Amino acid sequence: MLGKLIKYDLKxxxxxxxxLHIVYFIICLASRFLxxxxxxxxxxxxxxxxxxxxxxxxxxxxxVLVNSGTWLLFTVRFYRNLxxxxxxxTWTLPASGxxxxxxxxxxxxxxxxxxxxxxxxxxxxxVTGQNVTDAYAAVAAEVTAEFGMPISTFGIYMFVLSFxxxxxxxxxxxxxxxxxxxxxxxxxxxxxxxxxITSACVQVLTMLILAxxxxxxxxxxxxxxxxxxxSVVGYLFEGLWGSILLMFAIAAVxxxxxxxxxxxxxxxx
Amino acid sequence: xxxxxxxxxxxxxxxxFFALSNLxxxxxxxxxIGLLGPNGSGKTTLIKLINGLLVPSExxxxxxxxxxxxxxxxxxxxxxxxxxxxxxxxxEELLSFYVDFYDNFSMERASKMLDALEIDRRARLHxxxxxxxxxxxxxxxxxxxxxxxxxxxxxGGVDPAARDYILxxxxxxxxxxxxxxxxxxLIAEIENVLDRVIFLQNGQISLNATVDEIRTEYGKSVDTLxxxxxxx
Lengths: 269, 232
Description:
Chain A is an all-alpha fold. Chain A has 9 helices and no strands. Chain A is globular, with a radius of gyration of 22 Å. In chain B, the strands form 2 sheets. In chain B, strands 5-6-7-3-8-9 form a 6-stranded mixed β-sheet, sandwiched between helices. In chain B, strands 2-1-4 form a 3-stranded antiparallel β-sheet, with helices on one face. In chain B, β1 (5-14) and β2 form a beta hairpin.
């Protein structure tokens, strides 16, 4: 039953998802051959810098749009399929609430993971031209020293972290939607309000934990320079592991609340 | 044989408002039952409880001796009072969906009905007229070999000619082992197919009798009695 539910979730979102990512990949492909491969790293530095800033900003907006599009796809699917009129069919299928919940989490995470893979592939495509790799080789040692690891390793870390944190992002989005439907006449506003309240609480909690663990003391920052003590990335990763643990702990709580709502508090309009 | 539907002291509260209060019913198999009552009488709440879309505040509801859950959903076929299907899906995709999820769905029966009504299987639901879309929904629901069919306003949005077809569909597709619970305001239209009626008022049963009993005891049709009982 779980497999069938996942199949229909993926089927319902496949068309838009594919279109979004094919367009993204075509843009990356075109950018690689029409822009990146033509960059002259030995030319005018100011012009080069301006070109890179404008292009990076445009690509960043594209990444955010594609990523947000994916997030919207699985979040809207969750809402429509379970809490709108479609819920009258979904909730009367011979499947338990837990199966529905896991089907949505797994299908959402699959979309999120494929999104991360395609976004990463696009980035790799953009930066693997001969001119870029040659230019990077000249500063590779400096960057490696600053980061405390080769940039490729850093990239792999980021990829894996994005991949894993996806499950928390999916659960968190679903939690907001599920909690929002506790306000029958303002479900969408309720979901948005829950999102902001949850985010604010998480921020405060993170700050408190960081402060309690001494991350804000001046001593802590001492030595965070290239080649002396901890590297910049080393510092970032120390905080990051804590954040990930916190993120998973919050996701576990959100899952438990969502489980309760879906078992006891479903009230379709 | 065990009743197909049993409610014991069934109560559903929304805050301080009692949508259903201490409801006791036992429905036998092989009947078509009209669930009748004015707006806000608790019909939809009862239907949602049967389908596990709501959880009782107090009391119990049992379908074939089981609390609403995965097993009861296998034997209950529910037609909500609204368009509940994904309107971007094609009719043939909806058929596949029902085949995938319901072991008791008969593709042959559904195909026969779709052909009789000349409904294009390739058509997407949103391209069909409101009446045709409702017919598709009813066909999907009645093509299951369920033990309890719960139909919420099945003839509300269709023309009189289609109503006859729908009522005929209901009559021909339920077996002796199954029961049909129909909630509607169009009592005169369905009166002739009903075996029993339940009048709900303010979340409580005000009448639970067979249609024959109503005719002999009150000397009135169900429609006339309803208008008298619920006169505004």
